[in-house]
Every structure is written in C-alpha cells, then in structure tokens.
Design brief:
It is a single chain. By secondary structure, this protein is an alpha+beta fold. Strand 30 and strand 31 form a beta hairpin. The N and C termini lie far apart (55 Å). Helix 3 packs parallel to helix 5.
Length: 594
C-alpha cells in the first residue's frame, strides 16, 4: 500500500500535546514526527512513498470502514467490517496521570465485536525525509528500531513482532498478525524516545492508559463552554486546535504537517510547524471566549517571553520551543502524490508584515479584557511596539499573504490602525505607559489614509493596495476588528464574492485562482463579516454550507477545491479551524444583541 493516492480528507489526527499522528481510512499511520511536532518524521509516507516509513494495521481481504472520534476527545475509533466479522481499533497517543508522557506512546487497541477478523500489521521506519538510515537490532527485550537518535520499540499483547529479512539482509520492518473474535482484545503499542533510554510499557498498563487518555480529553472538553449554533463543529474545531498547542511551551503550531501542496503543480509547499503571531491572536480570542484560562495564559506568556528573547524586532513566526527559525532546507523526496518540493522551514521569515503589530496587541488586549494584568516589562515592550507602529505604518510590506512584492497593502494599514487603538485602550486601563496621545493621533491618520487611498469607488471595495483594482480577502478581518461595519465593508463583501467566490468558498486575492484553490479561512471570514454588517441570514447560510465541508471526522485542511470538495495544503490547519470557531462565536454574539 502507498500514500500517493490518498485523499487528504481520509486522514484523522490524534495527538498528545507534543506531536501529532495522521491516521488514514485503512488504519495506517502515514505521518508521525518524533519526538516533537517540529522534528523530522520517522513515519512520513505521506510525503515519501518509497522510504518515508509507516505503521499499518488492517484486516486481511475486503472490508468496509466507518470511524469517529470518541465523544469529547481526540481519540479515534475505527470500525472494520469483513465478510466474517467486525472489529474496532481505538487509537490514542497516550497521556499520563499528570499530563503528557515523557515518551511518545501510540496505543492501538483492537476489540473483536462479532465473528472473526484477521489483521496484519507492520512498523516500517523511514529515512526521516532522507536525514537518517534506520536499522533494526536485537536486544534482550526483543527487536529495537533505531533511526538516528530516535529509538522505537513495538510491544504486542499475546503476540510479538517479527523482524522481516529480505534476501538475507538486515530486517527493515517489524510485522505480525492476529485474529479477533467476539469480545477479544489485542494491543499494538509503538513507543519512542529521542536521545534517551526507552521505556517498554506493560500492555495492561497501556490498556488502562487509553481509557485514562479518553478521560483526560473529556475533562478538558467539560471545561469548554459553548452552547449555540454549530456546537458539534465548534467543539471539534477546538479539539483540533488543542492538538496544535505544543504543551512544553504553550506555542501554537499553524499546522501539523509540512509540504502538502496548495495546487497540483506544486511550488507552494511550505512548512507550517511553527507558531505564527497571527494565529496565536485568533486562538487567544477564541480560548478566552470559551473560558479556557490555562492555554491562554501559557500561549500569551510564551509569546511575550519569546519576543523579548529574540527582539527588538517583532518576527511573524517563531519556533515551537522559541527562537527564530531561519532558512529553508529542501529534501530529496517525491512529495504527496509526487508533488514537490518537500521542505523544512518557511521562507516568510524576515519579511516585514505590518499586520503583526495588530495581532500582538489583539492578544494582549484580549488577555487584559478577560480580567488579567500585564507585567511591567510587557507594558514597556508594548509601548515600544506602539511607537514602532507609528513609525512604520507608512512603509510598504509583504502583507498578510507573505507576498514577494512589497506594497502599501490596505489590510496591513488596517492592522496598524487596530494596533494603535488597542494600545490606547490598554493605556487607558493603566496597563501600558506611553505616548497615548501620539498613538491616538497616528491612528486617526491611518484611517484617513485608508479612506483616501484604500477605497476604490469604481470597484465599490477596499482594494489590495492603492492604484490597483485587485481585491484582498484579508480586509474582511477588519469587519471583526471594528474598522468598518458599514456600507463600504458590505460593498467590499459583494465585490469579493463576485470576483473570488465559489459558492460559500473564497479565494485569497485577485489572480490567485490560477495558482491555488480556495482558502478555507477566508470563507469563514466572509461569514463573520456578513454578520458584522448586519446580513445575518446570508452569514448563517454560508456557515451551514461551510461546516459541511469538513472531512468525515470534522477536520479541515488549508484549502478546498470547489470542483470536488477535495482538501489541499497542510492539515489540520489552525487558521481554518480558528476561522470556523470565531465565525460561530461572532454570529452567536451578534444575533443575541439584536
């Protein structure tokens, strides 16, 4: 079996707060970085059919399959039905009694439901995108997989792994088989460490650990407070977002994967396993509205600490453990469906994106308005950033879409307007000490500039940049920010829909239709903006259509092909799920106000 022909909609993510595994409809794990989400993936058949590595667990012969997440969790339950019987697989990246385990533990519990089902399984390590050469060696506790500094063991219940030799050469994989019967239970456990000894778990303890992991997820879900339209989709999106929170630091990854293409021609294949300030702003806003305090504080504290440690300039994204990633490395592997390149790193680092100032202030305002207090050092930092915004807003930048051509992007100016408004708000609350009068004056100048240069009367819309007829869906974010909830924003929505819309879906900006598919987050921003300008019925209709475009377990990638609904780009995509969440919350709040 290969991953080359897999539809990205076939994958369901599970995670433990440190890494994420993607599980396909055949029970296969085609993506699992170890030890961390940002690490080189020992199992990466998603991007490398030939030598990427995989974990397979599948019935022999023909079968049908259904699956769902265990309610309120990120634990996946898949049911296989064959001619002779039925069995379920419960997949979890196990968590411990006091949080995540100090090792990675993928537990696969196979329960016989009726009749008999013969399963085969194999664990085949990959080359970590060509950076390692794995091997299998014997130990006093059975065969052990080595891949660079990573050590992997496979533990089974009532059956053991078999090392498979090919033409007398060293084994390249571990495999086995078993048959379920009614009420039988088998366990397949893959445990891994990196640069440290490996703990071999007792299967009975892992069995208990799966149930504990379910309980841990449900405890988190009980703290989640949302009752309103699209409640199931909102909760699933919150759980998907939780998978992307890197618990050792509190950072939030933009996605769990790298190099999944945005179109069949390739080229736009980026690594999203980093923490964007933009995404954290939207996440903090959502988490606060859900009443989730711990994740909000961890994310805000991590970001502010990381900014100070890597200043004085504000970067658009950071590594999950802190620091400023630099450079892009291209790997000599084929890519998903043979669409390359496959890379580590993201070339957007080092760009000037003025909108990031608005994102930072939005995070801090959200935190303070939730009843918290900033420390003195953060107050000083924000005052300096506000002054910097006053100095820089007149400059060209790369815009939200990280474009190579610098322009006076209107949405970037709107972000600066938002930053200075929030700076004034925080100053009035005594949280930031600085030149509030200057910030207020400069904010007025920004609005005047946008009114004069950013609005195109002939288009009836805010344009991408002055002198252009092009449109940019990112201006929709500033219906939510409060920049414009009137006739001009409503007219802009109509212009964007006419030029960039495909039903409820939306492309990012003019001309990009030839380069990529519709951008999921933009479609939900449109729904939010419709609600903000008072067009609630249209907003609800758009939401109803959009929430039906998730995959069978409620997961969204970065982009959707409007022709067939196929998902493209990295997944699960934080921005897509954040946009769904915030659109639902915005609609609920505005409807309740009417």
């Amino acid at each position: 079996m290969t991953a080359a022909g897999e539809d990205l909609r076939s994958y369901a993510p599970i995670g433990d707060g440190r890494t994420v595994a993607l599980i396909g409809l055949r029970g296969q794990v085609d993506w699992l970085p170890i030890p961390d989400l940002g690490s080189m993936p020992v199992f990466a058949r998603l991007l490398d059919d030939d030598s990427g590595g995989c974990i397979e667990l599948e019935p022999v012969g023909e079968y049908t399959v259904t699956r769902r997440y265990v309610s309120g969790t990120n634990v996946l339950r898949t049911t296989f039905t064959t001619e002779h019987g039925r069995a379920t697989i419960t997949d979890a990246l196990v968590t411990g009694i006091a949080g995540r385990l100090p090792w990675a533990e993928l537990a696969r519990r196979i329960d016989g439901v009726s009749g008999s089902v013969e399963f085969t399984w194999r664990v085949r390590p990959g080359t970590a995108l060509g950076t390692a050469s794995p091997w299998i060696e014997d130990s006093t506790r059975g065969p052990i997989i080595r891949s660079g500094a990573t050590t992997i063991a496979v533990v089974g219940d009532e059956y053991g792994p078999e090392a498979v030799e090919v033409d007398g050469a060293m084994p390249t994989e571990l495999s086995g088989r078993f048959t379920t019967t009614e009420n039988s239970r088998h366990l397949l456990i893959i445990v891994a460490t990196h640069g440290e000894p490996i703990h071999l778990p007792v299967p009975a303890n892992v069995d208990v650990g799966i149930d504990r992991t379910i309980d841990n997820w449900r405890a988190w879900s009980r703290a989640f407070s949302y009752e309103g339209p699209w409640a199931d989709q909102v909760q699933r999106s919150a759980l998907a977002l939780k998978l992307l929170i890197f618990s050792p630091t509190g950072a939030i990854a933009a996605a769990a994967t790298t190099s999944l293409p945005e179109n069949p021609r390739g080229a736009k294949n980026w690594d999203y396993r980093f923490a964007w300030v933009r995404d954290l702003a939207y996440t903090a806003h959502a988490l606060v509205r859900f009443g989730l305090r711990e994740e909000t504080h961890a994310a805000v504290s991590w970001l502010l600490r990381t900014i100070r440690e890597n200043g004085p300039e504000l970067h658009i994204f950071y590594g999950l453990e802190g620091g400023v990633p630099d450079g892009v490395v291209e790997h000599d592997v084929a890519g998903w469906r043979g669409i390359g390149p496959v890379v580590s790193g993201n070339p957007a680092q080092g760009q000037l994106q003025l909108g990031v100032y608005g994102d930072l202030f939005a995070i801090c305002r959200t935190y303070v308005d939730a009843g918290n207090v900033l420390d003195v050092e953060t107050g000083r930092l924000l005052a300096e950033v506000a002054d910097r915004t006053c100095d820089l807003w007149r400059n060209r930048d790369a815009g939200m879409w990280e474009l190579p051509q610098e322009e006076h992007y209107v949405s970037s100016k709107m972000g600066c307007w938002q930053a200075l408004g929030d700076a004034v708000h925080l100053a009035e609350l005594g949280q930031v000490a600085g030149s509030a009068d200057r910030w207020r004056t400069e904010q007025t100048r920004i609005r005047e500039w946008i009114d004069e240069h950013g609005w195109n009367e002939e288009r009836g819309a805010y344009v991408m940049f002055p002198g252009s007829d092009d449109l940019d869906a990112s201006v929709l974010l500033h219906a939510m920010s409060g920049f414009d909830r009137g006739d001009r924003m409503s007219s802009t929505i109509d212009a964007l829909t006419a030029e960039l819309g495909e039903g409820a879906l939306l492309y990012r900006y003019s001309g990009v239709q030839q380069e990529e598919y519709t951008f999921v987050a933009c479609a939900f921003w449109r729904a939010s903006a419709l609600a903000c300008v008072g067009r609630h019925d249209e907003a609800i209709a758009a939401m109803d259509e959009l929430v039906g475009m998730t995959n069978d377990v409620g997961i969204l990638a970065e982009m959707i092909d409007p022709a067939d609904g196929a998902h493209w780009g990295n997944l699960p995509q934080a921005l897509s799920h954040l946009a769904l969440i915030n659109a639902a919350l915005t609609l609920k709040e505005l409807t309740e106000q009417d």
